[in-house]
Automatic annotation (TrEMBL):
It holds the Pfam family TNP-like_GBD. It comes from Rhipicephalus microplus (Cattle tick). This is Transposable element P transposase-like GTP-binding insertion domain-containing protein. Residues 16-85 form the Transposable element P transposase-like GTP-binding insertion domain. InterPro entries: TNP-like_GBD. It comes from the Eukaryota.
């Protein structure tokens, strides 16, 4: 739409925003940029100029704008990271949660979920979210709201930052499993098990902070293994020499890396 235009309505969209690969579809930042206020503001302008200076199809863009606005606000509320964010960004939605009667919690628990239900009823299955995405969206919203209320009421928290509820660790695990299978995003059980075994082996051979061998790397693992787990190590590269040290009745793996 913007190609060849002297003045572009939105400055940042690139091809991956419209035609992302399977791996790029997992990026949250790209989705947030698509739903961001600059895009909805551009659509609002094009809607007002429909028939006059742009395509008449923009006259019916209001439902799309509503969906983008609601989803963007949901992302913002789920990404509150500190107590000064709302000051620097001049956005009250990025303020920390410190009151169980916060209107943002009411919006998440009632207004947003009701909107999703209405959208589900008005849309055909192929034009709506997948079953897994819909369930995850509802579950995340309800659980986060209830968790915030519990921490403020029962645990006497002064405030709650929703970014701390992120699933980055498990997403990192899934990403590693995909990379071990050659960036395959449609993995079978065998590939997943193979990736998990590689993670275990990596943790075992990393130098333990309790061993008497200095590691040349900055990362040290406290992972200790029992004798029954030693068989997981398998065959290693010829330039790796391993030493097993008995510490507190357990076997801890330490290693040297030699240049060929």
């Amino acid at each position: 739409m913007q190609q060849g235009s002297l003045v572009k309505p939105v400055r940042f969209p690139i091809r991956k925003h419209v035609y992302p690969t399977n791996i790029e579809k997992m990026g949250v930042r790209t989705a947030i940029q698509i739903f961001s206020p600059p895009v909805t503001a551009a659509l609002s302008f094009l809607k007002d100029q429909a028939v006059h200076t742009c395509d008449t199809k923009f006259a019916n863009v209001a439902p799309t704008m509503e969906f983008m606005t609601n989803m963007y606000r949901w992302f913002v509320l789920m990404d509150v990271s500190n107590c000064e964010q709302h000051i620097h960004q001049n956005n009250p939605d990025t303020r920390q949660f410190s009151d169980t009667k916060d209107p943002r919690l009411h919006w998440l628990e009632l207004v947003f979920l009701e909107y999703i239900e209405l959208l589900k009823e008005a849309s055909s299955p192929e034009n709506f979210l997948t079953k897994e995405t819909y369930h995850a969206l509802v579950f995340t919203t309800v659980s986060n709201v209830q968790c915030i209320q519990f921490l403020l009421n029962e645990c006497d928290f002064t405030f709650v930052l929703t970014r701390k509820f992120s699933s980055d660790p498990i997403e990192s695990l899934f990403g590693f499993l995909r990379r071990t299978a050659g960036c395959n995003d449609v993995m079978d059980v065998r590939s997943a098990v193979s990736g998990l075994e590689k993670i275990l082996k990596t943790g075992i051979v990393t130098s333990s902070d309790r061993s008497n061998v200095n590691s040349s790397t900055s990362f040290c693992s406290s992972r200790a293994v029992s004798g029954s787990e030693v068989h997981l190590c398998g065959d290693w590269a010829p330039w790796e020499q391993f030493r097993w040290w008995s510490i507190q009745g357990k076997l801890t793996a330490s290693y040297y890396l030699f240049e060929e």
